[in-house]
């Protein structure tokens, strides 16, 4: 696989639960080295529009034809606005990889969903869909899910796009931009 593959990394901005919307930032990078494009959109906090917004980001970027994969910071954006990664792949033919630092605690998620959402079963099904893979790094392991790509190719993309630490650079840069836009200066870990 080429080192300069184009990847779309996506993360949400910091928000409070009194906010209606969260800003979503996408960055197109070549591998983990060269930032080519920044995309901005918004989703409803705890809504159900994250999948649509992610598909829209892919379909409307001028870099669409060169993208190799979408990298998401987790399976949900803006709280529990769960992303259907299989639907994104089916609709755009672009593989999707979710990345988290910590192994998801599905029991805790189920409790929170039951407590707060009428459609908790639908959201939980999307969260549980697909296998969680542990990926070893030079530091701590990360946990990924994939759609439209096999685990070995996903691991190679993670390796190509991670410069330092454990989070791929497209996600890390999207996080920095999103938090900087909302808070005036970026901080925190993607």
How are the SSEs ordered, and which strands pair?
Layout: E1 6-12, E2 21-30, E3 34-44, H1 50-60, E4 67-73, E5 76-77, E6 81-82, H2 85-92, E7 96-100, H3 106-116, H4 120-128, E8 133-135, E9 142-147, H5 151-161, H6 169-183
Parallel strand pairs: 1-4, 4-7
Antiparallel strand pairs: 1-2, 2-3, 5-6, 7-9, 8-9
Characterization of this structure:
There is one protein chain. This protein has 190 residues and is α+β, with helices and mostly antiparallel strands. It has a single domain (6-183), classed as archaeoglobus fulgidus dsm 4304 superfamily (archaeoglobus fulgidus dsm 4304 fold). The chain is built from 6 helices and 9 strands; from the N terminus they run βββαβββαβααββαα. The protein has helices at 50-60, 85-92, 106-116, 120-128, 151-161, 169-183; strands spanning 6-12, 21-30, 34-44, 67-73, 76-77, 81-82, 96-100, 133-135, 142-147. The strands form 2 sheets. The chain has a 7-stranded mixed β-sheet with strand order 3-2-1-4-7-9-8, sandwiched between helices. Strand 2 (21-30) and strand 3 form a beta hairpin. Helix 1 (50-60) packs parallel to helix 2 (85-92) and helix 3 runs antiparallel to helix 4 (120-128). The longest helix is centred in the C-terminal third of the chain and has 15 residues, at 169-183. The chain starts with 5 loop residues before the first strand and ends in a 7-residue tail after the last helix. The model has no long low-confidence stretch (mean pLDDT 94).
């Amino acid at each position: 696989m080429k080192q300069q593959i184009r990847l779309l990394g996506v993360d949400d901005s910091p928000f409070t639960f009194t906010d209606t919307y969260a800003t979503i930032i996408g960055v197109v990078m070549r591998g983990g080295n060269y930032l080519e494009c920044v995309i901005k959109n918004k989703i409803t906090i705890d809504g159900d529009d994250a999948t649509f917004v992610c598909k829209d980001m892919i379909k409307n970027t001028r870099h669409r034809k060169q993208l190799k994969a979408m990298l998401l910071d987790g399976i949900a954006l803006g709280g529990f606005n769960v992303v259907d990664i299989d639907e994104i792949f089916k609709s755009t033919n672009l593989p999707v990889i979710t990345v988290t630092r910590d192994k998801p605690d599905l029991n805790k998620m189920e409790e929170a969903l039951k407590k707060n959402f009428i459609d908790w079963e639908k959201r939980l099904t999307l969260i549980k869909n697909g296998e969680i893979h542990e990926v070893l790094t030079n530091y701590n392991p990360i946990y990924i899910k994939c759609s439209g790509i096999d685990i070995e190719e996903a691991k190679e993309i993670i390796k190509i796009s991670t410069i330092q630490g454990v989070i791929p650079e497209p996600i890390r840069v999207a996080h920095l931009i999103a938090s900087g836009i909302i808070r005036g200066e970026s901080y925190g870990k993607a």
